[in-house]
Write the structure tokens for this entry.
Amino acid sequence: MNCHQCQQNCDIEKSNWWQRLTRKHRSKQVKAVDGNIALVGTPNVGKSVLFHKLTRVYVDVSNYPGTTVEINRGVAKIKGHQIRVIDTPGMYSLVPISEEEKVGRNLLSQESFDAVIHVVDAKNLGRMLPLTFQLIEAGLPVVLAINMMDEADNLGLKVQSDALQTELNIPVILMSATLNRGMRELKQTILQCLSIQPEATLNTLNNLETAR
Amino acid sequence: MSSQITYPQPIEQAIAELESWLENLAALGQSSVLGQYTLSPRSLALLLLQKDPDLWSILKQDRKQQQEIEILLTVTQNKLKYPIDLAIAEARQKQAHSLEARTIQATKPAQNSFKETLHRLTINPLTGFPILVIILYFGIYKFVGEFGAGELVDRIEGFFEGQINPVVNQIVAQIIPWQSIQDLIGNDYGIITLGIRYATAIVLPIVATYFLMFSLLEDSGYLPRMSLMLDRLFKSIGLSGRAVIPMVLGLGCDTMATMVTRTLETKRERLIATFLLAIAIPCAAQWGVILGLLAQKPAALMVWGSLVVAIFLVIGFLSAKLFPGKSGAFYLEIPPLRLPKLRNILTKTWIRMKWYFWEILPLFIWASVFIWLGKLTGIFDLIVRAIEPFTVAMGMPAATAPVFLYGFFRRDYGAAGLFDMQQQGSLTGNQLVVAAIVLTLFLPCIAQLQIMIKERGLKTTTAMIAFIIPFAFGMGYCVNLGLNILGVSL
């Protein structure tokens, strides 16, 4: 509820005449603006790379845990849908230890998301699954993105995503963001998670009209 | 849901009680805890059991509620062998590992022993320090110092001095009749002949080579290993090993590193780290320019290096003593060593360079304008004359006074000014070392100052600055005195 209000407010605040002009122009290609997703996970699993791949917004990426200390926001365009993407600082658990972890937790607990993508390192799945459990427990729409599959392959690790998917009862995607592997599946899953599909919006709008 | 974890029985019981308590609250409309949080009741219950600080601060608003929950916690705790949060974490961990075992198979025996050996070599102090020295020598000294600050700067500087400056001066002289306006754009301190020249010819090539090297080290995964190794050193002076992270990042950019001090657990650690970053960690631009200054005199470079390290250790030790308190445990994710991808490194270097360049260019241009204004009104000469006694006391020629004045604006600008003087051969080895030390210790750049104020508050920042300025000059004085007494001339 809060979130939807906020979104509307934000849009109204931001749209001055120039942006309205450009947006109008753009909206011909874009079918709908829907969806809000977040990227979460322990430090150094590739959230920022994924964020960059999804939104084309560059954030400083490094092979060094804790590089992202602030929330980055961007918009991903998937098949004409505009989806807000939020990149969070790394967190180990829902109970925050340091300041930047708090930022991510508060975000998750106070905004509502259509999908929360938990990015994990395929090589250290066991260490990262506890956060997945916590996210599921919290009732969030979790998608498990098992990243760095290329490195897991090199180590000879074989991940049975189907088994994980049935055990966890959430979508599981094997990917390697730097190599663009699994990006299509992820995008498809994100679209499936969107609560409002374009056709559905039209229908509900029509229903509302008739109801009135 | 099938994926729900079952916790030990006492915890499950407590969860159930908390859940119904939360639901009652919601039903009564007193959703003080639930209201703000969109998390599920089960999750909120678990957070309460783990004594989540945020939730507890909300809970404290109601004395009765708090007491009730505290009783529930004690009762639950008494039924368990371990602390509640540990029991919860263990249940999750166990489930996670059994799930991992069921869904992941190793198809080939663990090998890749080369990476493993390399990893061991980099973190073992016996082999790690030599490796660090080798990386510093080839990566920083040879590549940034000699190639970037030597070759590249010479070429671009030469191009500026030979091709651009005379042309600019000539054009300015022809189209602008007033000498004072001519000086704003051309001649000794002009926007183009000094401001833009410093930014593009001196600072840019140095920063570019440094960022390239830093990105390479970063993407290879060497930096966390370096942190791990330095952790011991930090602990020996009483600092938390976690503080290594911002320090190492500070070698790239102190401003960014000051922001990263947020990852430190306690206020004390954040304070010490911010202070050390402001005083003793040279950023990419400083490193580079100072390396360029001292590259021809290896002995001077050694003196500078060991003095800065010594100052860092002593200040770290003293401030750790001054602000007593426990330092948090160091827990650092060690990413794998990777062969860096050229494209990623180039993009990263390019983006950082662009960011840096656009940040300094206007500042350098402003500095030119200020100097011009100051010269025009005579204020500049007044300030320079006020600084002169200090620079002379440090054994510096009077002509370096303006350089320190620039240093007020930005350390790299001051360093570039020194570089200019050194190119003309007007400084001795001793003077170079003293100047380099003072500039390293001196005030951070404007951007870092802003972040310091934002992160630590105006009062703390002012106190730090009030210490740093006299300390920097005092050290310069002492070093000069020491070198003179020992009769060393570098």
Observations:
- The beta strands of chain A are 32-40, 72-78, 81-87, 115-121, 142-147, 157-159, 172-174.
- Chain A touches chain B through 63 residues (CB under 8 Å).
- The domain at 31-211 of chain A is CATH 3.40.50.300 (Rossmann fold).
